[in-house]
Amino acid sequence: MAEVGNNLDRARIHRALSRPTLLFGADRELVLVTGLLAVILVFVVLTIVSALLGAAIWIVVVGLLRMMAKADPFLRHVYVRHIKYRTYYRPTSTPWRKY
């Protein structure tokens, strides 16, 4: 009797297509927004203190974002979907049902 699994086609899934897009080990969009805000802080105030503060904020936030991405690279997408949910759903079949 022939084995069933031998005649199945195999499709390769390349790692580059399934890997999340990260920058500095964190979510790309969040890192870019953080960098943009740090640069805006530096160039709007134009002092040495603001440059040091902008660099410190960027380093700390990117570190936190890296910890977040290490736990789950899609955590930002999960959180955005989570906040759209309501806290309570009434046990009815339709919103137009009379109570």
UniProtKB/TrEMBL annotation:
Per UniProt, the keywords (alphabetical) are: Membrane, Transmembrane, Transmembrane helix
For this protein, the record's NCBIfam families field holds:
PRK13823.1
Cellular component, GO annotation? membrane
Looking at the keywords, is ATP-binding present? no
- The transmembrane residues are 32-65
The record ties this protein, via InterPro entries, to: Conjugal_tfr_TrbD, T4SS_VirB3/TrbD/AvhB
Localization, UniProt? Membrane
Query: Domain of life, per the record?
Result: Bacteria
Q: What is this protein called?
A: Conjugal transfer protein TrbD
